[in-house]
Design brief:
This protein is α+β, with helices and mostly antiparallel strands. About 45% of the residues lie in helices and about 10% in strands. The strands form 2 sheets. Strands 3, 4, 5, 6 and 7 form a 5-stranded mixed beta sheet that branches. The radius of gyration is 20 Å and the shape is globular.
Length: about 230
C-alpha cells in the first residue's frame, strides 16, 4: 500500500515569534472534491529546518482525523527546543494547536485525555479501591470542566465540533452513562454550580445533527459494559 503523499512547501522557517509561524505543508490533492471550507493551520511537533514530522501521538491523531475527513489544512512545525513565545504563553507550549482564521485552539487538552482511564478505574474498582478511584475520577472531571470553561464554548470547537470533541464526547458519554447505572453517579442531580461547563457541553452535543445521527443510546452503552462488569 502506498503511503499518503504530502507535498512539502519550499518555504523555510525564519526564527521568529510572529503569528503565524513556520513552514507549511499542503495536504495531498484528493481524487474526490470535498466541501469548501476554510483551511486550518495545525501546529505540530516537528523539525522546521527539514520539514519533518516528529513523534507526538496527539498530533498524529489530529492529522489522521483531518486526512480521513479530507479537510484542507496546512502544517506548521514546532521546534521543542525553540518554542515561539505565543505558544508558551497561550498554550503552555503544548501541541497540537489548530488555527482557524484568527482563532487558535488546543486540540487535545490533558484534562480530556484523563477521562477514560479515570472512569474505567472507578467503574472497575474493588471495594478497597473505591474511595481512591472515585476521587481520581472526580478530579479528572473537575479538570475537564475547567478546560471546557476556558474553551471557546460550549464545545472545544466553539459552536461546532472539532477533533477534540470528536475524541472526547463518546468517552464522556460512556463514562456518565455507565457510572450512573452502576455507581449511582448522576451529574445532573448535582447542584447547578457543579460541573456547569460539562452540563452545557452535553446539552450542546445533543443538539448537533451529527450527534443525533450516530447516537446509539444509553441502553447500548450499558449492554456493552455489562461484559466488563462480570465479577465486579
Amino acid at each position: 500500500m502506498q503511503a499518503p503523499i504530502i507535498a512539502p512547501s519550499s518555504a523555510r522557517l525564519a526564527k521568529s515569534n510572529s503569528k503565524p509561524f513556520g513552514p507549511r505543508l499542503r495536504a495531498a490533492p484528493r481524487a474526490r472534491a470535498v466541501s469548501v471550507m476554510a483551511k486550518l493551520n495545525v501546529y505540530v511537533k516537528g523539525d522546521p529546518k527539514t520539514n519533518t514530522l516528529l513523534d507526538c501521538p496527539f498530533c498524529h491523531r489530529v492529522l489522521l482525523t483531518l486526512e480521513t475527513k479530507g479537510a484542507p489544512y496546512d502544517v506548521s512545525y514546532v521546534d521543542f527546543d525553540d518554542k515561539p513565545k505565543w505558544l508558551v504563553d497561550e498554550f503552555e507550549g503544548k501541541v497540537p494547536v489548530i488555527q482557524d482564521g484568527d482563532t487558535k485552539m488546543a486540540t487535545a487538552p490533558e484534562a480530556a485525555g484523563k477521562i477514560l482511564p479515570a472512569f474505567r478505574g472507578w467503574l472497575m474498582a474493588s471495594p478497597a479501591e473505591e474511595t481512591e478511584k472515585k476521587a481520581a475520577f472526580l478530579a479528572a472531571l473537575d479538570a475537564l470542566d475547567a478546560a471546557l470553561a476556558a474553551a471557546p464554548g460550549p464545545l472545544f470547537g466553539g459552536e461546532r465540533m472539532d477533533s477534540t470533541d470528536a475524541a472526547l464526547a463518546p468517552k464522556l458519554y460512556h463514562a456518565l452513562t455507565a457510572l450512573k447505572h452502576w455507581k449511582g453517579f448522576n451529574i445532573y442531580a448535582l447542584p447547578a454550580d457543579k460541573y456547569p461547563a460539562i452540563k452545557k457541553y452535553r446539552l450542546a452535543l445533543a443538539e448537533l445533527e451529527a450527534w443525533k445521527k450516530v447516537d446509539y443510546g444509553t441502553e447500548a452503552i450499558i449492554k456493552g459494559w455489562e461484559r466488563h462488569m462480570k465479577g465486579h
